[in-house]
Amino acid sequence: MGDNIIIRVQSPDGMKKIPSTKRETAAAFLKKVAKEFGFNSNGFSVYLNRNKTGEILSQNKTLSLLKIKHGDMLFLFPSASSSSSGETMDTATPHTSSSLPSISSSSSSSSSSSLIPRSSSAPQVQEDEIDQYLAKQDGKIYRNRDPQLCRHGALGKCVHCVPLEPFDEDYLNHLDPPVKHMSFHAYLRKLTGGADKGKFAALENISCKIKSGCEGHPPWPEGICTKCQPSAITLNRQKYRHVDNIMFENHTIADRFLDFWRKTGSQRMGYLYGRYTEHTDIPLGIRAEVAAIYEPPQSATQNSLELLEDPKAAAVDEIAAKLGLCKVGWIFTDLLSEDTRIGTVHYTRNQDSFYLSAEECITAGYFQNQHSNPCRLSRDGSFGSKFVTVVATGGPDNQVHFEGYQVSNQCMALVRDECLLPCKDAPELGYAKESSPEQYVPDVFYKDKDKFGNDVTFLARPLPVEYLIIDITTTFPKDPQYTFTSTQRFPIENRDLLGETQDFHSLATYLSQCSSVSFLDIVSDFHLLLFLVTNEVMPLRDSIGLLLDAVKTSNEQLAQTWKKSEQWATIEQLCSTEGGQPSSSLGYEAMGGPAVPASSAAMWSCLHCTFMNQPGTEHLKPRSSRWLLKAEKDALVYIQIRLFSSSWSLESPLQYNHSSKL
Predict the structure, then answer these.
(1) Would the CA dihedral through 299, 301, 306, 312 be positive or negative?
(2) What are the two backbone dihedrals, phi and then psi, of residue 436, each rounded to the nearest 5 degrees?
(3) Structure confidence by residue, pLDDT tens digits, 59-92
(4) How many CB atoms lie within 10 A of CB 479?
(5) pLDDT digits (tens, 9 = 90+) for 183-204
(6) How distant, in Å, are the alpha carbons of 305, 509, 546, 627, 662 from that of 650?
(7) 45: CB partners within 8 A, 6+ apart
(8) Residue 27 phi, psi dihedral angles, 5° rounding
(9) 480 HSE (CA, 13 A, CB side)
(10) Which of the residues 38, 140, 311, 517 could staple to 163 if both were Cys, CB 3.0 to 4.6 A apart?
(11) Distance set, CA 116 to CA 201, 234, 379 (Å)
């Protein structure tokens, strides 16, 4: 028994202990190592030293002759031709300024670092352009020479003028207004700014699920062990944020979104489309610029919102991508009118009530999980999210204010693993689920001060949601910017309740109002482009690429080239015959649309087919009925059956009382 020894072997995947004996040969020992780490016989090399010196060869010499004793540490490096692992172990070579080291987040705190050897096993991820740009920036805060405190020459530096790091808390606290959360890239620099340059750090996402593959016991709920059990979570206020500012390009974007609430009194929700840029007011900051708002199908009341299935969601994302935009967040209203004469609203969201309800935090976490942040420093390929939440609500001055938020990475993990629930009677409180036979839920805690000022740990049942919220400044620029330059307003999608529909009649009206501007300015409208791509009569999804490039680059010549295409000529023809009116009555021939001869003015065309009808005909009589009259509970609805499509649409304003259900 005295010959038994244990040898530690360090690899890029971690350390393992290999049982052996003093008389065991090096060849037999290397076979044990290969079996333990899953390598073939020639897929790795083992060295006595970390700097790859003193290689242990496969030979018949015993371990005692090689001076390998009990408890010694050996170092395993996969070979370049290894098919089972392409990882390489980091050496003590310091990182250059152009390479960003990585950080770690434990399950108990999203901002803590764990000593995990970083390897190249992380997937190759294409990061966002803004992340690639900021990773190359110096990020330091440079200060001028202080004439009162600095006693050195112009080329010297002292503690009063030396550049500060981007995560300097004293500098951030003295900004106007003070910054509570450092930027995400400044947070990376803080964790990787030590002597090791982040060599032993790695970004890891929190998991609240039982680890799979544990064979030492029956599966949950019959058994669980410390190897597969997720760690308890202690909620901490996140010290960094992925987005530091939200900016709407102009007031028109927000005003058009609020028009729905002004006209109906019902709340509204929309997706924010824009781009991420550098926010220069905060070191290494990121700004989300909003260029357009897309309103998906939804059912809304004065107190609730329900999202419906959106068949056009993929097409909208595709169009936005071709325009150089992406989905950067979502916005919803929570407005209650106070005085309609002067346009004031109630101030309902404040420190005495809540800023975001638990249900809204869960929704925000769901969206952030859907739009995770690509990160090459994470083993999962993503970490956190840049997806923002904007609330249009009443402010202290009883005017409409826009407030921006995100939820923390801990909240994202709780929502992703279905561990967080809202409280029915207290919107400001969440509730961590309890374990059940169907799901194991780790304990969730938060810290607060008791009446004596002592820090006390509480179980998150219930949970104040302010531990999960990160506030973001929302602004409008002094000089408005316009990605879409159209001065006229094409109807916004999914607003049939207001009588605003997207059809060729509204397109003809829109074009008639734009007869004196350039063609590029006419088509530079996000909602118009969506209609051209998603309409049922003549969708242009496969032929509108040139026009989208023209709008993206503001190239009038490209727009004129696309205007001469057959697709636009067909659109013009559909608009010219819309509503049985010739194009001259719409003023549309100024746009290049063909005018209808006066001799055919007596004939009128059907809105939904190719029939030409005699003058004086008031009712259509085609092969099948086109119009049906339906009366139900004092409701009068005209339902038009489109002969060219299987879909149904409502004709004329919908008239019904509140007690009727159609």
Answers:
(1) positive
(2) -135, 170
(3) 888 888 888 888 888 988 887 544 333 333 333 3
(4) 5
(5) 999 998 888 776 666 666 678 8
(6) 23, 20, 34, 11, 12
(7) 52, 55, 76, 77, 79
(8) -65, -45
(9) 10
(10) 140
(11) 6, 21, 11
